[in-house]
Amino acid sequence: MVKLKDRLSLVLMLFCLQFSFAQDSLKLSHQEFLNVVKTYHPLAFKYQLQNQIANAEITRARGNFDPVIAGKLGEKNIDGTKYYEQKNIELGIPTWYGIDITGSYNYLDGQKLNSSETPGGLYQFGITVPLAKNLLYDKRRGLLDQARFGLRMTEAEQIVLTNELLLDAENTFWEWVKNYEIYKLQKSAVDINKERLELTRKTYEYGERPAIDTVEVLSQLQNFELQERDAYLKFVKSTQDLQMFLWQDNQELFEISQLIFPSSNLDEHSGYSDYEFLVQNVSDRQLENHASLEYYFQKQNILESERRLKWQSFLPKLDFTYNFFNKENYQPNYLPLFDNNFQYGLKLEIPIFLRQARADYEIAKLKISQNQQDFQFKTREVSTKIESYKNEVSNYFTQIDIMSRNLNNYQRLLDAEEMRFSNGESSLFLINSRENKLLEAKEKNLELKTKFLQSYNKLKWLNENFLR
């Protein structure tokens, strides 16, 4: 069903393009196209949302350090006996170093109170300090660190993904431009051979040329017409490929309702003049500043944070808690701390076998080792790509230079053959042969320019991935 829909879409586009050929057409430049992709493409929009999600993760992790206020109100009364009446308000403040600070006011009254409870109003200030586990690092600090590292990791990842999207879009654009220029080239060849056919027919009617010459020109014309239709079809297909990058502000695909032509051409690209500067710029960059490697740097930080948390499981849990009390309407007496109006506690927990702690810590170390291997592989991959693209760009530029000189030679040979033909020293067969060679060389030149620009774009967007 999908294939049938694609075929119908292609047929409809062909019809629309042919129908509107003589009408006004839209022009699309390289920069306009990239601006549309950056602004409206769903993937670019999705990558921006991913960074917002990472920022929200940091806010959520900071919530673990938010002060908490709590209140309690209660009363128990049975058969006229008031067991208790309680009013309580408490403020808890978690701190960065794992220390928890609390302050509260508690009012308690009743006829059936526990002997350990204090009737009346009572102010309390307390502190809980971890003396072993969670003293140097704890889950609250770990989650916030991991959220911060996660944001940097996400930003690096989105830079790479966005640039890959733009690279794909840009290369699709220049492939579209190439197909359009090949189509124009074939159309020009058809127009030239139509004029040649008319001229040959007239010279035949005047008795200056044999009839077989008209057959020779007609055969050449028909061959170019076939090539023109094939070039036209490729241009239409590449227009469909280009359409996949054209979106509107409501996240809907832009529907092509009339003919679209590129206003940019292969010859005007700045890459021909500044490719050496780009190659030098990429060579001077520090590889560790590449966004795809930054991703693994930050992932390493996250895994290291997780390892530090797992290491805490080997330590005994030893928490010291101290509370200072002061009754309502009493003059406070803070010192000495362990003389009056106080409560303290010391809690100790020691796992016996530590099997879970050992397994969790081993897993954390193995994940770090895996990430280090991934980092080394990615480093090698980025380095290889840089060298490969640099070589491609330089090689294709040299080929273009050679092909340009070769084109001049083919054009001179064709001009000379036409001059000999006008003097009766050559034939249409030789002219057609020279013309075919020239046309093939021009197409080859366009192919080389497209390959150059595609390699240039790969190097350019790889360079854009460097963070500093």
Short summary:
With 468 residues, the chain is α+β, with helices and mostly antiparallel strands. Helix content is 62%, strand content 15%. The protein has helices at 2-19, 30-40, 42-62, 139-205, 211-243, 271-284, 291-312, 355-422, 428-464, and strands at residues 26-28, 68-78, 81-94, 100-109, 120-130, 260-262, 317-327, 342-349.
Note the topology.
Elements: H1 2-19, E1 26-28, H2 30-40, H3 42-62, E2 68-78, E3 81-94, E4 100-109, E5 120-130, H4 139-205, H5 211-243, E6 260-262, H6 271-284, H7 291-312, E7 317-327, E8 342-349, H8 355-422, H9 428-464
Parallel strand pairs: 1-6
Antiparallel strand pairs: 2-3, 3-4, 4-5, 5-7, 7-8
What does this structure look like?
Helices cover 62% and strands 15% of the residues. It has 468 residues and is α+β, with helices and mostly antiparallel strands. It folds into 2 domains: 2-40 and 140-306 and 359-464, Up-down Bundle (Outer membrane efflux proteins (OEP)); 66-95 and 99-133 and 316-352, no CATH class. The strands form 2 sheets. Strands 2-3-4-5-7-8 form a 6-stranded antiparallel sheet, with no helix packed on it. A hairpin with a 2-residue loop joins strand 2 (68-78) and strand 3. Helix 4 (139-205) packs antiparallel against helix 5 and helix 4 packs antiparallel against helix 9 (428-464).
